[in-house]
Fold each of these.
Amino acid sequence: MPENDSRGERRFAGTAVSPGIVRGQVHLKGVLMDEPESRRISENEVEPEKRRLKQALLQTRGQIVEMRQKIEEAAGSENASIFDAHLLLLEDSTVLEEVTKLLESECRNVDRIYYEVIERYLESLRRIEDPYLRERAIDIEDVARRVLRNLGPGEYADEEMVFEGLGEEFILVAHDLTPSDTASIDRNHVLGFATEVGSMVSHTAIMARSLNIPAVVGIHALRSDVETGDEILLDGYNGLLIVRPNQETLEEYEILKAEKAILLDDLQELRDLETETADGHQITLSANIEFAHEISQVQKQGAEGVGLFRTEFFYANEESLRSENAQTRQYVDVAVAVAPNAVIIRTVDLGGDKLMPGLLAEPEPNPFLGWRGIRVCLQEPDIFRPQLRSILRASARGKVGVMFPFICCVEELREAIAALEEEKLNLRKAGEPFDDNIEVGAMIEIPSAALMADELAREVDFFSIGTNDLVQYTLAVDRVNDRVSDLFRSANPAVLKLIKQVVEAAHRNGIWAGICGEMAGDLLMTPLMVGFGVDELSVGASQLLSVRRAISRLKVSECQNLVKEISGLSSAVEIEECCRTLVMEKYPELIT
Ligand code: PEP
Ligand code: MG
């Protein structure tokens, strides 16, 4: 607990990306500067201490360079440039000269002296009311923490391991978290998280929703306003982080929590029902998962199968799971668990903001426009072929579909399907069973694919519209950059035109079309998706029952009227307003 709690309540607003209300103490990720003990040393020990510091600086340099490379591969050179600044701070001659001078004059252990010198700098920076300098203080602390760890005994704990070994429960506050950071969060300790950057459709946010971790992102410069140990309340419904909440706030939140609990309880009655509109039109409501273990949770929420199994996360995280057998086991487990419903397994969609450990020798300047999704698979048969065989094997054990991400043209789709056919042949030769009629789909998430939907539809059994990417690529808005997140709107008329056109093309060609991007769970957009005639919606576990309730309150004719009404509108804001009027009439209690 901070010593002075009389500072009063402060509220910070960001983007609510994963629902829930949690209260606990802050743990600032990346700020773990422990205070080393002070120890006298003899004059003879001064030179060895200098060498110890030099060694620690070298080791730190190596770690920063390695991390820079990792982040560059995962998130691009812009995100990695922070580490260039870290290298400069590490080698700052003023600091190093001062440490050497004090070491010689005071004859005390070098880690303590280094700590004191850094602390003095930090103190003066913290007193300056300049957000830029405060940011620098965080960077300096980050670098110094590494140096101190390398000076100390034992193994260096790198960033990913920050989550381990922390005994109590806390709310994690970080500048940013990667999707794999989020996946490795230990729910026994981390109640929720808040970050300074991020957006609703980043894979970090998607992961938080899947794992049911309340989260708020995009609270700028938050780390200069909170400290480890501060008492906070995180409101993942309204995107608020409240530091040192006062009694009135706590009471207000007790009421909100109770209301939400009643609503969730009430929604449970829809668990075993089908998803149908008030006038009896059925829509398949399935779930998105990232890990096989999520299946029990999504079934508890009444999912009618899995509409999107994102397979790249376990692929990217666990070396041991990359084997063909392990993949097969994962897919079989899910296929058996969801039967008689279907699971649609998406082939790995590496690239963009998803890690590709060791795959890229050189970082890409534009990862979202680069080597991603099906492009990687088609060039890396060692990744693609075992996955296709695993999916086919699972198809013998349940109802399995396969779909290909990031299709931009018909050639890619044909090549992917040809690879699948070849693997069918291989399994047949080996006498291994599979479903020869396995459904094959294309993800429509690039505008070129949406525009060529008629041609693509002739090649496959279904379309799954990935609106996260479709919005990103149609509007040229980076899905993970919160600076431009105001422009990231699925209600943009250009996006809606494409979606409508894709669904119509699918139906014209006798195939079905679903939506598996985050738009599928956006209750403001539900009437439009029903009005477009979408056959399936695949959403995160936490959204399932709300979407089912929303659909149950709508009539197809009303939704079609809404589609007509918005077709005359030219801006996203106007379209959202129109949708809001209808949803506030139909299911106000579901809208936060
Ligand atoms: C999408 O782009 O909408 C989608 C579902 O795929 P992902 O979010 O994994 O890119
Ligand atoms: Mg996508």
Amino acid sequence: MHVEAVGTDITTERVDAIVNAANPGLLGGGGVDGAIHAAGGPEILAECRQRKADLPGGLLPRGQAVATTGGRLAARWVIHTAGPVYAPGKDRRAVLRSCYVQSLRLASELGAESIAFPAISAGVYGWPMDDAARVAVSAVRDTDAPGIELVRFALFGQRALNAFTQALANT
Ligand code: AR6
């Protein structure tokens, strides 16, 4: 499995699956979530409603993942995961790690060979970028995901790219 970091808008990625940093309600939001729904069109939201109907309380537990169509995106699937909100003094790294592990496993089950991740929780949810990158890289490297040949971190901004490039070099 090849793992790489690139600076890009994830909605333009030509991979089998892209991962959305969603929220438990699954009905869209700002940041990368808003960009994915805007670029992928209403089919994604329609399938999110279906996935939501199957979840207890209509909520996706943080650290879990569900898949929908990619709609108008080049990617065939969008995998929606809800990251933890960063809270100083509370260790929620296992939940952040789980977002990557569960998304990779789901992509593998679907038959994807390539997947792109954003920096989950490192925007609105406030996770410090360097630590977000370390958790992401170690989670991906430790996960057995049969069939996945390419994992690409698709990152907005130089700071995110630097953090993930460094984490890849050190992990
Ligand atoms: N391509 C790649 N990365 C992006 C893009 C893009 N098009 N747009 C933003 N990012 P965030 P979170 C980066 O806030 O912290 C939403 O409202 C961004 O610069 O999107 O997990 C959801 O509905 C940052 O580095 O996700 C949730 O309520 C990273 O993606 C909440 O925000 C993650 O930032 C989730 O917050």
